[in-house]
Amino acid sequence: MSSSEPREDNSSTSSSDRRPPRAAAPAAHDSRGARRFLLKLTIFLLLLAVGLNVLAVFVPETNYQDIFRAVRRADQRTEAHTLILGDSVARQMFTADNELPGFKNLATNQAVSMAGQYILAARVLESGTPIRTISLVMIPRSFRNDLDQHLTFNYFVRQFYRRDFQQYLSPSVYERLRHRPYWLVNLPVVRKTWLGSEIDYSNGPERMDYYLSPIASEYLRKLRDLAASKGVRVRVIPSVISQGENRDFQTIRRQIHESGLDEMFQGYFEQLEVLDDSNFSDGIHLNRDDLVDKYRAMCLERIKAASDQPDVDGSAGR
After folding, report:
1. Are 217 and 255 a contacting pair, CB within 8 Å?
2. Could you tell me the CATH number of the domain that includes residue 142?
3. Is the pTM of this model over 0.85?
4. Average per-residue pLDDT in the chain?
């Protein structure tokens, strides 16, 4: 090659080759930073959850305290000989504050279902309280509860799904509970606060006719058998309903008979009091204190009469 020929200039190529490639280092650095942040956030949230649950163990319940209180009182031995259970209409009349000597008032709410009523009765009997009569004061609509209501989680699962209560829960109860995350109440922060309140066990509009639900039938029979094994009488006591609630009772009466519960319901429908709708705040609960006093006295007379009434074997209490 002649020296006069121009040399090929590779300077541009060489300088390009020597340029550092576009580094992904900043992106990699950002990715590692994001992972560290997520890890710290996860650890923080886990520690927060653990801390809240530990704290919840030592603080009182913030919601549904009336049911929790009834559960605690069921375990407290007294010298009562008559146990009063029931729905919220019964609770209007029979509270812990107006408990008469010889009585134990544990009326709560229909939302606890007959399974909840049974557990309360079982705990009272196991506490050593010398109960001779169990009076279940309820209006007809309360026997519809099949653990399929909007309030089932808040009024039954929170209070009665406990390790020491599992002996009372039948397969049919678990069958109904499994459709929602009932196991969340194992976390104290869920059991004792508003968390989980939105869990809804209802399946569409509530039926308005009167019937004896499978859960009610099962646990009424359990209550009957438990009471019989302890020499205790159990009776269902009628209270008072509105005209709007005074509907056809033929279906529930037939189901009571088919379930072998006629003795528990003796005189129930015949003695059910019916008042004008104007005497009720919501069609269910009485709206005047004088009416509450009047029907409390009426129910007490019926409770005492049931305590003295001979059973089919001729006995009248223990």
Report:
1. yes
2. 3.40.50
3. no
4. 86
